[in-house]
Amino acid sequence: MKLKFALNHITAPKLSLEEFIALAARLGIRDIEIRNDLPNELSQLKPQEVKAIAAAHGVTIISINALYPFNVWSGDLPERALAMADYAEKSGAKALVMCPLNEGRPVAFKDLVQALSAMKPILEDRGLTGLVEPLGFPVSSLRTKGEAVKAIDEAGGQSVYKLVHDTFHHHLAGETEFFPEKTGLVHISGVVDPAVRVDAMLDSHRVLVDKADRLENIAQIKALLAAGFEGPYSFEPFAEEVHALADPLTAVGESMAYIRSA
User: Fold this and answer.
1) Region 125-141: what's the mean pLDDT?
2) Top-tier CATH class for 5-261
3) Domain map of the chain by residue range?
């Protein structure tokens, strides 16, 4: 079983885009995710510049993360969706990650389907994949991949949408079903704090995966591999203790080695 690792810029957000891409290349990682929520990054760089930096280091931009809240298709969201899709196409990115409203307010299933239907031609026209990422937080309006699959089917979006299987959110949602054939990307991160309850886990608890992980990352990865998923496993730790690391190269390399050995 060959693991294909990827790297999300949130792993080392203090690095410039070029420094981050160079870090991935030094780790032997050829797939990266860039973000639209980091300061002085995409807002400061033209998409053609991003494309050139990636090409110079021999890496592929597998996604821009993320369109939010994609399932509330109102206000300025359609305009932002168009702008992100245009940027993705021109930068050479393959996909857009799409995250649902995560503020404690429910979103009706019909509105979720409407948003997917509206986004579908935008993605199709630019040759992009929409990576739908349910968020397992109790306040999330779309917690499970199962509901996302039903909505994608209802919108007739099977050809343009794939799931993000996030090991953190899979655990938080208490979801047991895997959808390997419908998955385009896996996000991996661990929680090692022994005191925090599952329903109280936040992005700030998400660290690199090691032997103290409470999210059953290894079991989840084994299940996905056994089911035939061959896509990338992308590191996405949000904890400040990871962001503050003086040597992210060694830390990520050690996590890669642990996951491979386990």
Assistant:
1) 98
2) alpha beta
3) 5-261
